[in-house]
Design a protein that fits this description.
The structure is a homodimer. Chain A contains six helices and three strands, in the order ααβααββαα. By secondary structure, chain A is mainly α. Chain A has a single domain, classed as Winged helix-like DNA-binding domain superfamily/Winged helix DNA-binding domain (Arc Repressor Mutant, subunit A, Orthogonal Bundle), CATH 1.10.10. The first copy, chain A, has a three-stranded antiparallel sheet. In chain A, α2 packs across α3. The first copy, chain A, starts with about 25 loop residues before the first helix and ends in an 8-residue tail after the last helix. Chains A and B meet through α1, α2, β2, α5 and α6 of A and α1, α2, β2, α5 and α6 of B. The structure holds a DNA duplex.
Chain lengths: ~150, ~150
DNA sequence: CAGTATCCTTTATGATACTG
DNA sequence: CAGTATCATAAAGGATACTG
């Protein structure tokens, strides 16, 4: 998301006026961070790692990979490093042989998981609508003119 | 996200037990859809388009691109097509010359925006914590052993 | 105007081999 | 065990030209 601002015609801030809380008018810095966080969480593995750690608490590197499933060492390392950098997890190295490294969610990490709960619930509630919309679209509902 | 299930060792379902609501035990299909939706919304443009449409209501193709800012025609087309397919927006073609195509959020689209409000609020609330965590990490707070 | 078609670059992810 | 290093591929994204 580095090269985003190219033609940006003055991105004004909008507020999702919802029931939860009235965030007033946010600033562009915040908007950027929001997108960054969403992108991060959407990077195919972060969310999964977050879920596994929510379920299992303290988990070692290899075990974490097994629990996540289908992830390469490389991506697992990258993902937990990012999460550590963002303060979402703690990484504890036990200087023993063989090495023992344990990962655990921080309070920040846990709260992020909760924040996404709204999305989770939304999908539970509207997932079938999407499925139906797709079927309709595939059947060719596009060319509606007026 | 097509080739996800590779070595997946029986992905059991976890529930973000939060304050919002107790979703009971979800199924793998749901989990997959959740990730799919998150991935979609995180594809760099969907969220932005969603926000613009929330703010402006009915918007034409080119205008939408301007409001989003920095998006290529190709990606804009792709993004709105996906959103249309998922039932998040409606696409209305007015058979006039020059063509006039208007996009608008559906109720489903609006509700998705609201669902992500939790994330938005989380970032507003914890964005600075992440910033501080990054600074600390960059300064070299990693090699904590125990 | 609202796209579609192409070509090209960057980034994400994977597979594999190697190490303290 | 917990990585790192390297090679290779695919998908995302962007730039540009063209069209009904």
């Amino acid at each position: 998301m580095r090269s985003a601002a190219v033609l940006m015609p003055e991105k004004k801030k909008k507020v999702h006026r919802v029931t939860v809380a009235p965030p007033a008018v946010a600033d562009p810095k915040l908007e950027a961070l929001v997108r960054e966080i969403i992108e991060r969480v959407a990077d195919k593995w972060t969310m999964l790692v977050l879920e596994v750690l929510e379920e299992h608490g303290v988990v070692r590197f290899t075990r974490l990979g097994e629990l996540v499933g289908g992830i390469s060492q490389k991506m697992l390392t990258k993902t937990v490093r990012q999460m550590e950098r963002d303060g979402l997890v703690t990484r504890t190295v036990h200087p023993v042989i063989p090495p023992r490294v344990e990962y655990q969610l921080t309070e920040l990490g846990r709260s992020l998981g909760e924040a996404f709960c709204g999305v989770w619930i939304w999908v539970e509630r509207h997932g079938d609508e999407i499925a139906r919309a797709r079927e309709a679209f595939e059947r060719g509902a596009q060319p509606r003119s007026k």
